[in-house]
Specification:
This protein is of the alpha/beta class. 61% of the residues lie in helices and 7% in strands. Helix 2 runs parallel beside helix 7.
Length: 587
């Protein structure tokens, strides 16, 4: 009995340790506090600094392109803006009656280049500084618009980086946005600042101030009045650019404001809020009409036949053909390359697939964003709805000209749609992700091809060499003519204006037409005084390509006999040009 009592109970016996082959996983509580704090701070710091760093990198690439590689893609069309600035500078007025304009844009990029004209003249320096200033205004306007849509700085930086990459994805888009400032890029710039001022005004009017804070209320009212005045003056000045500003900027914003209020069932149709918006719309219409009349007054009867010709209807038999060109034009504008015979899994082919995926997304995402229209709530939701309407109204107006008119002759006329499609797509993805909607994960997945496309775009721009200008035929021709001591002469448009700017006006090359009737002064982006005898000019030259030279030979043009000498010039691509030198003016 005593033995049994002395035997320890089984329950009280100590447990044998369990031996396992796998290493023990430490509990989170066993991780040193300083280690957990380090990784937490590192992740937080990365999310705070990565978007600004990304924007800085992409913006630096665009600046690099404007400063250096853009010279390799510089051609005659890129000279439009600086020639308008030069015409204004010479005449001392907005328009020069002696100059033949391609289009009339008194409130445009020529004003930016006019700032530098007294210091650097008609030169690449003036052109480059003007485009850098336009780039800063473009980026600032987009960021300000998103700020008024209540985005935080990380989303703003990310979206701005994406937009810069999209509009730099092809040579033609780079020309439109960073090569010169024409109505397409100007209209988008106006749209950004117009929506920024509109959203700013709405935010000020909706801002709630405590009843006992009279100073804050007075400050808010003053700020709102100043914003309203700036908005009205801005609409008037932009409308001086006539039809193009109306199509891309003014009409889309007006229609967007009206349709957003009309379809808002949560607000009674007859209400103080809608009445206030209606009054704003009527005031903006008045300012637009004032801007149109002011633009006509500044023009003083000067017309722009080139721009006006694209405002006409095309024959109905061509409409279907124009519509069928849209898909391929859209893809090519976004950088799709023609690589027949290339394997589908080749590196270049994969790049093309990425471009196609991004191009399709830019068409589809605005449609999806429109389908979610009723889900946008609050003041930021109203701003999203206005932006969506502005995109579709502008798209509809451009597509009318594309299908029913002559805009389909060049794919770059779709560039405003590319830009607003990218903006609406990013706004939708931001809404879907930040509001944790049912499309949250899908939106995150859709960001992948967009990021790949942007990375490819930035890489292609960064890969352009700094001395890319050496491959530009115009630079090569300028060097040859300088070696022969030639400083004043004539050439067709695709050589004349570009060579003048490239040489910093050390060589003045004037635009002429060469056809079976001979050589005659051109009436496109020219001035009448260019074809008169130049004081103290001893030699004049005429630059012709091989086809133009052969044409004059075939027609036995008497101008060939007047030439004191002639010699061929060959560029690096093997293309032959002829230079005819005269001891007197050919006109």
């Amino acid at each position: 009995m005593s033995k049994i009592l002395d035997t320890p109970d089984a329950a009280d016996a100590p447990e044998e340790p369990i031996v396992s082959d796998s290493p023990a996983v430490p509990d989170e509580s066993e991780v040193p506090e300083n280690t957990r704090s380090f990784w937490k701070d590192f992740g937080k710091g990365l999310t705070l600094t990565l978007p600004p760093m990304l924007l800085f990198f992409v913006a630096a690439i665009v600046v690099y392109y404007i400063l250096f590689p853009s010279k390799g893609e510089f051609h005659a069309d890129c000279t439009d803006t600086i020639y308008w600035a030069k015409a204004s500078y010479d005449s001392g007025s907005i328009f020069n009656p002696d100059f033949s304009y391609a289009c009339l844009l008194p409130f445009g990029g020529s004003l930016l280049m006019l700032i530098f004209m007294p210091f650097f003249g008609l030169s690449m320096t003036t052109h480059t500084l003007g485009m850098l200033l336009f780039f800063l205004l473009f980026l600032t306007g987009f960021c300000l618009m998103l700020k008024e849509m209540h985005w935080n700085y990380r989303w703003i930086c990310g979206a701005a980086a994406v937009l810069l990459a999209v509009v730099s994805s092809s040579e033609k888009l780079r020309e439109i946005f960073w090569g010169h400032t024409i109505y397409y890029s100007l209209g988008i710039l106006f749209l950004f600042y117009g929506l920024f001022l509109l959203f700013r005004l709405e935010n000020l009017l909706e801002q709630k101030v405590p009843s006992d804070a009279s100073k804050k209320e007075r400050s808010r009212c003053i700020h709102a009045c100043i914003t309203l005045i700036v908005l009205l003056v801005f609409f008037m000045l932009c409308s001086t650019d006539q039809v193009t500003a109306l199509t891309i900027f003014a009409l889309p914003i007006l229609a967007a404001i009206f349709l957003e209020r009309l379809l808002d069932r949560r607000t009674p149709l007859v209400s103080l809020k809608n009445g206030r918006v209606l009054l704003l719309l009527l005031t903006l219409v008045v300012m637009i009409l004032c801007g149109l009349m002011l633009g006509q007054h500044w023009a003083g009867g000067i017309t722009a036949d080139y721009a006006d010709s694209y405002s006409n209807y095309a024959a109905q038999s061509t409409w279907l053909e124009h519509a069928q060109t849209f898909p391929l034009a859209w893809l090519k504008l976004l950088g799709l390359e023609d690589i027949p015979g290339t394997p589908l899994m080749n590196g270049e082919s994969v790049k093309n697939l990425i471009r196609m995926a991004a191009a399709i997304l830019l068409l589809v995402l605005p449609i999806v964003a429109t389908c979610c229209y009723p889900k946008y709530e609050g003041e930021s939701g109203r701003q999203i709805r206005i932006l969506i309407w502005a995109h579709w109204i502008m798209t509809a107006l451009i597509m009318v000209g594309y299908i029913c008119g002559y805009l389909s002759m060049a794919n770059w006329r779709l560039s405003p749609i590319v830009c607003t499609s990218a903006v609406v797509s990013m706004v939708f993805l931001h809404w879907a992700i930040s509001n944790r909607t049912s499309m949250n994960r899908i939106a995150g997945v859709l960001c992948i091809p967009v990021v790949c496309f942007c990375a490819l775009s930035v890489w292609n721009v960064a890969a352009l060499p700094k001395d890319y200008y050496k491959e530009n035929t115009q630079y090569q021709l300028v060097e040859v003519l300088k070696e022969h001591g030639l400083t004043y002469g004539y050439a067709t448009f695709w050589h004349a204006n570009a060579m003048t700017v490239i040489s910093d006006s050390e060589m003045l090359v004037r635009n002429v037409e060469v056809n079976e009737y001979g050589v005659s002064p051109a009436e496109y982006q020219t001035a009448q005084s260019w074809y008169e005898d130049q004081p103290e000019q001893e030699e004049y030259f005429l630059l012709l390509d091989q086809g133009e030279y052969d044409m004059l030979l075939t027609q036995v043009d008497p101008l060939l006999k007047k030439a004191q000498k002639s010699f061929p010039v060959r560029d690096d691509n093997g293309t032959v040009y002829w230079v005819l030198v005269f001891t007197e003016n050919i006109f």
